[in-house]
């Protein structure tokens, strides 16, 4: 599988190797939240740190059982720059659909499509997901916890659906 040069630079070769071989990333690969607990994003322009502009749309998505983003149980890469090529789409099982949902949401968890017809149990078995990377020239780092897997899937469209490690 071909990996994104951007994700390799951001995550480092060890993290990318772990994601590609085991489907999980070390805890250090998950971005930290600010002290108030809010996820955020920051715009990056040309010339910052000599790196130039960020690639259009490349993300690392993680999934963890429990109320914390660690330990990561599963992680995938998603490149929405050119989803017509499977080699460039990363390891996400449904890259075209996930990219379409992320486009509509501008790569925010809160903006992802919700399934109004979903019926989930009240079982409290929390799961936590993260989105990190670059989207339309800005850095993205978000984290959200859902009451259970059904609530996650019904609130995030195709982005966190059908992962092999669920």
TrEMBL record:
It comes from Candidatus Methylocalor cossyra. Belongs to the protease inhibitor I16 (SSI) family. Residues 58-148 form the Subtilisin inhibitor domain. InterPro entries: Prot_inh_I16_SSI, Subtilisin_inhibitor, Subtilisin_inhibitor-like_sf. Residues 30-51 are annotated as: Disordered. Homodimer. Pfam families: SSI. Keywords: Protease inhibitor, Serine protease inhibitor, Signal. Residues 1-17 form the signal peptide. This is SSI domain-containing protein. It comes from the Bacteria.
